[in-house]
Write a structure and sequence with these properties.
The protein is mainly alpha-helical. 70% of the residues lie in helices and 0% in strands. It has 2 domains: 69 residues, no CATH class; 74 residues, lambda repressor-like DNA-binding domains (434 Repressor (Amino-terminal Domain), Orthogonal Bundle). The longest helix has 22 residues.
Amino acid sequence: MSIYKTSDSQKIRVYAIATEMSNAGLSASFVAGAVELALIYEGVYDLMELWSEEDDANEFEQIIADIQEEIEEYAEMPKKPVKKPYISFDDLEGIAKDIEGFKKHLRTLVDQWGGINQLAKQTGIPQPSLSRFFKSSSMPRRTTLYKIANALGLSEREIITDWAA
């Protein structure tokens, strides 16, 4: 993510789109997060512009999901450099299978609990984002796992016991 400086007219545009988003029923926390990020990250500014100009409901949802992912990614960014563990290329396939197995188990719990749509309502995570979360073999974000765990009434220990994030 590259930091950029918004012009005064861009700031006004962000606030106008934020009002549209709020009037469309998007949560205040989502809109506030989108505004905060759009003022420093051109990618989110552009996504907000796209949302404002879009007519297709499916595209609305996809754009919202993309903005939500950017908000979550920004929230998880370390405030200072972090030394990350080295993962061997040879280990990646096994790790992907572990993640897929964990997500399959978690999806079973979600389906028993009430399904993806109910989970989206409970967590505030857009349904398209949740669907992508369960279909991919990518490493889940800790904040996403915690939101799901809270919605399902699972403890942090139960999540970490099944798979350490």
